[in-house]
């Protein structure tokens, strides 16, 4: 399955949206355009504070671009809320749709830690004929699974997590290649894994406000900054 | 020819992170302590928070307060690593920007292995700055006030290196959560080890009330004999006019006033509800409750508090939850410490709103008493402030957070304000005279002087 290409909501207009939203700071945008925020949330489950932040921004009249690992990060945990918010005309979702899981690093790890040893154990079992005897309880597979889990959790993941912000930054650069960041006013990294991408965007686009703070009242602050 | 040298002034290194222009609630004690010591002939060097932190991160300053600092005091501002507060991605360096998780882990490790507080780097830099100054001109005593408690760690380290005795002033509690009356850290947390170490090495430890001293004495019995209480007090130099002398105008609506920073830890809902009910009484029908001060310590905290107070939403606020009723509550905004006398002068009843319980005194209450106005309490029962207020004749205390009971005391306080005589005010203010800051700081100054090991000039003498 490829990455999601289309936004969930329809493309927003640049005109005033409602009484509350009518200001902008990004270059090349009309002064009446609503503030546009790119929210980066790279955890597998969106915390309540992030979900509430999105809802509050939308209520303020802000245009929100939500960059997430997959829509299930919200829909699985709060399906009703997601059903409602995903239809919001000022929300665009940019999802990797599980592409991280399919990254070569993860594939190689699964191959080396799970598949090859698992295959070897299954092959050995077949050759020795133990698997056909009843009552052996499948112990070699269970043991191999435990060892593989231990290697995954205690060896692979600690190192993988350290490099994950860079890896995700690379993936989201591709995923968001079509986004015109000159139209974006603010980038918000909602967690530590999103910092690298947000930091890189800040370096590339000097006009962007790039922060980890989940600030509200953005029309006011962007108006005074502008 | 033999040159006769002037008698030596005792020299103190005062580690006080929050110092003017900060407007943190504890800054008044630090300001008064430094001024008191300078007035008593001490050569005071204060190590305080860097200005970029006060202006850029906390955003809570009162510049007029700086002018009230004795000009003889030298203020140093060691730097602070702002890792924990810096949310601006643009300011991140290459390492933090490209390896944020590793940077965070290394920072956490430094907290675990070094000093368990985000202000640890300031403490370390304060020690470095102190050593440099000490090499030029020796300090006699180190006085550290917390929070933050990195100042305590710095005092301990400075003393280990130089042998200079130190005193720690618990302006706030470190390991006791004042809002839940329970330990602030789990067993085994490095804060416990540090507190034991700091108290073990301190010449004296100072607490703001007997309840806090008792709690620490119970935990650290070996150093209990070196503990003393120095309550907060009111600053005579900041309350220069004579509040309370204005004749009561029975025709104008009563003004109830709260002064100070309002925080989410205070019983704001109870205050609002009790006030709403009290206003149903004819005497208070047109009364106003004025909130003077900041809403929350940090930027952007005021939206939530405005909502909890039933105040109309500001531009950009979420209007949901606002019922549109005028409850007679007015937010008057921050007041400089140098302007509070005017606010007191215009007030009829002062509202003592406090979070927490039996270990909380609140510095504000001393100032309230000095005005000779009726004070109405809105806080949990059994608060430590009771020890101070119990002799005050115009104290109206429901001793409960039951909104009907609080509303009733509000009505009583309003009536008392209407009928107040100059004699009653004078009696009330006499009670407060026992709590001037200078008077309360005298034993601490004497204790510090006793730690100085060289011949000194007489107290209060000038160069």
Automatic annotation (TrEMBL), chain A:
Residues 1-30, 123-143 are annotated as: Disordered. It comes from the Bacteria. This is Uncharacterized protein. It comes from Plantactinospora alkalitolerans.
Automatic annotation (TrEMBL), chain B:
InterPro entries: Glyco_trans_4-like_N. Residues 29-233 form the Glycosyltransferase subfamily 4-like N-terminal domain. Keywords: Glycosyltransferase, Transferase. PANTHER family: D-INOSITOL 3-PHOSPHATE GLYCOSYLTRANSFERASE, GLYCOSYLTRANSFERASE. This is Glycosyltransferase.
């Amino acid at each position: 399955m490829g990455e999601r290409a289309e936004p969930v909501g329809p493309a927003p207009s640049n005109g005033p949206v409602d009484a509350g939203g009518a200001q902008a700071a990004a270059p090349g945008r009309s002064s009446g355009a609503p503030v546009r925020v790119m929210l980066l949330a790279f955890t597998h489950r969106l915390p309540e504070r992030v979900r509430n932040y999105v809802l509050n921004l939308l209520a303020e009249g802000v245009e929100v671009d939500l960059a997430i690992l997959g829509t299930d990060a919200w829909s699985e945990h709060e399906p009703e809320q997601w059903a409602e918010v995903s239809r919001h005309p000022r929300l665009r979702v940019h999802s990797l749709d599980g592409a991280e899981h399919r990254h070569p690093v993860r594939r190689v790890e699964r191959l080396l830690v799970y598949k090859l040893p698992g295959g070897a154990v299954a092959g050995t079992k077949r050759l020795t004929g133990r698997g056909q005897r009843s009552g052996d309880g499948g112990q070699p597979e269970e043991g191999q699974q435990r060892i593989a889990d231990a290697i995954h959790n205690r060896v692979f993941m600690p190192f993988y997590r350290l490099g994950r912000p860079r890896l995700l930054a690379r993936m989201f650069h591709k995923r968001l290649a079509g986004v015109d960041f000159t139209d974006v006013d603010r980038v918000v990294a909602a967690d530590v894994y999103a910092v690298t991408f947000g930091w890189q965007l800040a370096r590339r686009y000097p006009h962007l406000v790039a922060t980890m703070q989940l600030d509200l009242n953005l029309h006011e602050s962007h108006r005074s900054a502008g | 020819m033999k040159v006769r040298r002037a008698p030596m002034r005792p020299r103190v290194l005062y580690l006080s992170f929050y110092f003017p222009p900060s407007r943190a609630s504890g800054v008044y004690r630090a300001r008064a302590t430094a001024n008191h010591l300078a007035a008593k002939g001490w050569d005071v060097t204060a190590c305080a928070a860097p200005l970029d932190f006060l202006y850029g991160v906390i955003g809570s300053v009162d510049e007029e307060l700086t002018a009230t600092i004795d000009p003889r005091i030298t203020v140093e501002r060691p730097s602070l690593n702002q890792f924990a507060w810096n949310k601006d991605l643009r300011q991140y360096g290459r390492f933090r920007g490209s390896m944020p998780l590793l940077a965070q882990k290394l920072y956490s490790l430094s907290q675990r292995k070094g000093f368990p507080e985000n202000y640890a780097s300031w403490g370390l830099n304060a020690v470095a700055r102190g050593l440099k100054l000490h090499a030029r001109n020796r300090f006699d005593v180190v006085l550290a006030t917390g929070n933050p408690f990195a100042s305590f760690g710095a005092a301990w380290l400075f003393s280990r290196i130089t042998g200079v005795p130190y005193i720690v002033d618990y302006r706030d509690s470190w390991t006791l959560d004042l809002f839940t009356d329970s330990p602030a850290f789990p067993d085994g947390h490095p804060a416990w080890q540090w507190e034991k170490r700091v108290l073990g090495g301190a010449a004296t430890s100072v607490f703001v009330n007997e309840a806090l001293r008792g709690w620490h004495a119970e935990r650290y019995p070996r150093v209990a004999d070196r503990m003393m209480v120095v309550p907060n007090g009111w600053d005579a130099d900041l309350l220069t006019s004579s509040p309370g002398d204005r004749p009561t105008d029975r025709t104008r609506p009563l003004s109830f006033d709260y002064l100070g920073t309002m925080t989410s830890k205070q019983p704001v809902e109870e205050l609002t509800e009790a006030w709403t009910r009290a206003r149903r009484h004819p005497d208070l029908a047109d009364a106003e409750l004025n909130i003077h001060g900041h809403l929350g310590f940090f930027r952007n905290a005021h939206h939530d508090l405005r909502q909890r107070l039933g105040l109309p939403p500001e531009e950009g606020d979420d209007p949901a939850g606002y019922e549109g009723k005028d409850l007679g509550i007015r937010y008057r905004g921050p007041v400089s410490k140098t302007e509070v006398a005017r606010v007191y002068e215009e007030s009829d009843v002062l509202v003592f709103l406090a979070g927490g319980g039996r270990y909380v005194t609140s510095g504000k209450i001393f100032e309230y008493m000095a005005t000779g106005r009726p004070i109405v309490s809105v806080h949990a029962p059994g608060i430590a402030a009771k020890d101070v207020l119990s002799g005050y004749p115009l104290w109206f205390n429901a001793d409960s957070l039951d909104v009907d009971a609080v509303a009733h005391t509000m009505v009583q306080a309003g009536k008392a304000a209407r009928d107040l005589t100059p004699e009653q005010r004078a009696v009330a203010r006499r009670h407060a005279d026992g709590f001037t800051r200078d008077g309360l700081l005298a034993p601490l100054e004497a204790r510090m002087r006793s730690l100085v090991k060289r011949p000194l000039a007489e107290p209060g003498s000038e160069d």
